[in-house]
Amino acid sequence: MKEKRNRPLWVSLVLLLSLLSIVVAGASLSGREKIFSEAVVGITPSRAAVSGDTTTGCVSPEHRADGKILINVPYISQEGTLPTGCEIVSSTMLLRYYGINTTAEELALRIPRREVRWENGMRTGPHPAEMFAGNPFASASYGCYAPVIAELLNRELENSDLQASAVTGADLNDLINEQVAQGRPVLIWATMDMKASVSGDSWTLDDGSTFTWRKNEHCLVLVGADEQGYYFNDPYQGNGLVHYDRTLVEKRYAELGWQAVVVA
């Protein structure tokens, strides 16, 4: 049997000092992490995923004294993945926010789409409110509108208590107050870098009518607002969290038909 020995006093003092150093260092690190988090994010995450379930509990975003509202939505860039699939990448950010861990590439394979092509001397293609026009994996393509994305999201949300809805004509301030301020990010159709939209290619639809695409069309995730403008998770060129002037955003939003998708 091993002999039990008493520990020398100096060993005990060294161990005690080491323990105190670890506690002080840990407290200092926690403080730095808190400062970093507040500087970069500035908010408490507004959704908490329930383990093993896609249903989440809603936690209101922080409302700042300066009137700023902002919610923390996981960011994904479309660069290197879906160069013309901003709608799909923005949808993926929304799903990640609600605890559904899919990828943009997986969604792109599941979205209904059809190429715009020349047939019998005439350019033909789908209406972007019915399916994705073109190929989101291609560097030159078109896109889709709110009804297509709402349908795509609802297939992904079928095992949750959430539902996506395409809305048209909603005022951005109303979307902030009724959705974002309640912890619900919104998909918005506007333009890339908020540049002016212009008339692009036209093609013939299945019913014989003509559709004209708006160049610079873009889909972003509306995540907040302040007195000067709106905050977005912008998938274009890895832009990250961006802030655009209020009047400019409202103008571009109108140019794309006041389209949005809400999840509640």
Question: How does this structure look, described?
Answer:
This protein has 264 residues and is α+β, with helices and mostly antiparallel strands. The protein has helices at 9-40, 86-97, 104-110, 146-156, 172-178, 246-255, and strands at 47-49, 56-58, 62-63, 69-70, 113-114, 117-119, 122-124, 132-133, 164-168, 186-191, 198-204, 210-215, 217-225, 229-234, 240-245, 259-263. The strands form five sheets. Strands 3, 4, 9, 10, 13, 14, 15 and 16 form an eight-stranded antiparallel sheet that branches. The protein has a two-stranded antiparallel sheet with strand order 1-2. The protein has a two-stranded parallel sheet with strand order 5-8. A hairpin with a 5-residue loop joins strand 14 (229-234) and strand 15. The longest helix is centred in the first third of the chain and has 32 residues, at 9-40. The N and C termini lie far apart (68 Å).
- Helix run count: 6
**Largest sheet report:** 8 strands, antiparallel
Q: Which percent range fits the helix content?
A: 25-40%
Shape descriptor: globular
pLDDT < 50 runs, ≥5 residues: 1-59
Q: Supply the helix-strand structural class.
A: alpha+beta
Computed CA radius of gyration, to the nearest angstrom: 24 Å
Total E-strand runs: 16
Distance between the termini: 68 Å
Residue-averaged pLDDT: 82
Strand content: 25-35%
Q: H/E series, N to C?
A: HEEEEHHEEEEHEHEEEEEEHE
Describe the structure in brief:
The chain has 264 residues and is an alpha+beta fold.
